[in-house]
TrEMBL record:
<comment type="function">
    <text>DNA-dependent ATPase involved in processing of recombination intermediates, plays a role in repairing DNA breaks. Stimulates the branch migration of RecA-mediated strand transfer reactions, allowing the 3' invading strand to extend heteroduplex DNA faster. Binds ssDNA in the presence of ADP but not other nucleotides, has ATPase activity that is stimulated by ssDNA and various branched DNA structures, but inhibited by SSB. Does not have RecA's homology-searching function.</text>
</comment>
<dbReference type="GO" id="GO:0005829">
    <property type="term" value="C:cytosol"/>
</dbReference>
<keyword id="KW-0346">Stress response</keyword>
<comment type="function">
    <text>Plays a role in repairing double-strand DNA breaks, probably involving stabilizing or processing branched DNA or blocked replication forks.</text>
</comment>
<keyword id="KW-0547">Nucleotide-binding</keyword>
<keyword id="KW-0234">DNA repair</keyword>
<dbReference type="InterPro" id="IPR041166">
    <property type="entry name" value="Rubredoxin_2"/>
</dbReference>
<dbReference type="Pfam" id="PF13481">
    <property type="entry name" value="AAA_25"/>
</dbReference>
<dbReference type="GO" id="GO:0005524">
    <property type="term" value="F:ATP binding"/>
</dbReference>
<dbReference type="GO" id="GO:0016787">
    <property type="term" value="F:hydrolase activity"/>
</dbReference>
<dbReference type="InterPro" id="IPR020568">
    <property type="entry name" value="Ribosomal_Su5_D2-typ_SF"/>
</dbReference>
<feature type="short sequence motif" description="RadA KNRFG motif">
    <location>
        <begin position="254"/>
        <end position="258"/>
    </location>
</feature>
<keyword id="KW-0863">Zinc-finger</keyword>
<keyword id="KW-0067">ATP-binding</keyword>
<dbReference type="InterPro" id="IPR003593">
    <property type="entry name" value="AAA+_ATPase"/>
</dbReference>
<dbReference type="Pfam" id="PF13541">
    <property type="entry name" value="ChlI"/>
</dbReference>
<dbReference type="InterPro" id="IPR004504">
    <property type="entry name" value="DNA_repair_RadA"/>
</dbReference>
């Protein structure tokens, strides 16, 4: 009679330290997360963890004290907007961005404001000397008596400073520069980043210490290090901006305490970084003259409507191969709009150089800016300007139809607040509510309707 085998089956022999993927043989690259050098031998399955007795049973959710998770404002309005109200004691925030975008300047400003608000702040820098950070703090006016600064790259020493000072807020710039002598690997490697992050998170939760860690990004814009890092922290923020523009945008990719659809706008100057509560003025040209090829649109970034001006130039090509150039917009959307103008409207743009750009270096990725892009290109093609008091928004389809976009009333309210009096919007199936009386809007169903309305004498 056959008997069941009592021997314990072996687990797959190798496991990825970044994502946990397992395999029966060693490979140099994880097939799940595509990280190199993270697959290591794990041996046999260990015995299962046994339950232990607890002194106090888990309380009912209504009895949990939530006062420890209340927001404390940073007094940086745009940062508080993105975080949902401010910093939460014990929260761990990861701030990622490209080199030179202004991460250190922003956090130094946040550190000084937190210190002025009767908080003890420890700033650990592993990329610069203490003297360099102090010079920047003097330049942007970020000196405070309770702001402590140390230049340290050893994790144990940094945790020693935490033990000695017991700060309310800890800022680490950056998590890739710290290393622990307890684990192998160079600073910034997968193993080191995981150990550094786990130690800092453990200290933050134990002390109710708000911790902000700066994270580097790779060439494709993703956060360097193991993917586990983003899962461990409470908030992940992305700080973006063009190198040749002063505008910086802060977005929350993950937020356990607040929304992930808010956007913070900052102005980076030689004297520091300043929040922009009303950034629309940066994206609209100051000229009052009507120029062909320009059109103002309203894009929604998170919950915030932003007015931006789109400029287009269509010129006859003399070399035989038409050029296409796009700045601040999606190049594939521009190609699609040019094809719609050619096929549905009858504008011969195939032998014309086409240039499309936004004012102020803002990036517009929302499909709602399609109609304004088409109007700007048609205006340049016909050499006829549109009114400077007009805003246009709507998504354009391949059939030439104008599709509805969300938050129409919010966009119109923002346009009316900034002095615009007319608008062209997609047609809706129901009456719009909340539209201000100071703006006159017209609804259209196709791109041809919009162009006929704007250029009545043109052959469109």
């Amino acid at each position: 009679m056959a008997t069941k085998s009592t021997s314990r089956s072996k687990a797959p022999g190798y496991k990825c330290a970044s994502c946990g993927w397992t395999t029966v043989k060693w490979v140099g690259r994880c097939a799940e997360c595509q990280e190199w050098g993270t697959v290591a031998e794990i041996g046999q399955v260990s015995a299962r963890t046994q339950a232990v007795s607890v002194a106090n049973p888990a309380p009912a959710i209504g009895d949990v004290d939530a006062s420890t998770a209340e927001f404390r404002p940073t007094f940086v309005g745009e940062l508080d907007r993105v975080l949902g109200g401010g910093l939460v004691p014990g929260a761990v925030i990861l701030l990622a961005g490209e080199p030179g975008v202004g991460k250190s300047t922003l956090l130094l400003d946040v550190a000084s404001r937190a210190a002025v608000s009767n908080n003890k702040v420890l700033y650990v820098t592993g990329e610069e000397s203490a003297a360099q950070v102090k010079r920047r703090a003097e330049r942007i006016g970020a000196l405070a008596d309770t702001l402590h600064l140390t230049a340290e790259s050893d994790l144990a020493t940094a945790l020693g400073h935490v033990e000695a000072l017991d700060p309310d807020v800890l800022i680490v710039d950056s998590v890739q520069t710290l290393s622990s002598s307890e684990v192998d690997g160079a600073a910034g490697g997968v193993t080191q980043v995981r150990e550094v992050a786990a130690s800092l998170i453990s200290a933050a939760k134990k002390r109710d210490m708000t911790t902000i860690m700066v994270g580097h990004v790779t060439k494709d814009g993703s956060i360097a290090g193991p993917r586990l890092l983003e899962h461990l922290v409470d908030v992940v923020c992305q700080f973006d901006g063009e190198r040749h523009s002063r505008l910086r945008l802060l977005r929350a990719i993950k937020n356990r305490y607040g929304p992930t659809d808010e956007v913070g706008c900052f102005d980076l100057t030689e004297n520091g970084i300043e929040g922009l509560s009303d950034p629309s003025g940066l994206f609209v040209a100051g000229s009052i003259d009507q120029v062909p090829g320009t059109c103002v649109t309203v894009s929604v970034e998170g919950r915030r409507p932003l007015l931006a001006e789109i400029q287009a130039l269509l010129a006859k090509n003399l070399s035989g191969q038409a050029r296409r150039s796009v700045t601040g917009l999606d190049s594939s959307r521009m190609s699609m709009i040019l094809a719609v103008l050619q096929a549905r409207i009858g504008m011969d743009v195939s032998q014309m150089d086409s240039y499309l750009a936004t004012v102020g270096g803002v990036k517009l990725t929302e499909p709602a800016v399609d109609l304004a892009s088409a109007v700007a290109m048609a205006s340049s093609y016909l050499d006829r300007p549109v009114s400077r008091r007009l805003v246009v928004f709507g998504e354009v389809g391949l059939a030439g139809e104008v599709r509805r976009v969300p938050d129409i009333a919010r966009r119109l309210n923002e346009a009316e607040r900034l002095g615009f009096t007319h608008a062209i919007v997609p047609k809706t199936t129901e009456a719009l509510s909340g539209v201000p009386e100071g703006i006159n809007y017209r609804e259209v169903t196709t791109l041809a309707d919009a162009l006929t309305m704007l250029f009545p004498a043109a052959d469109s």
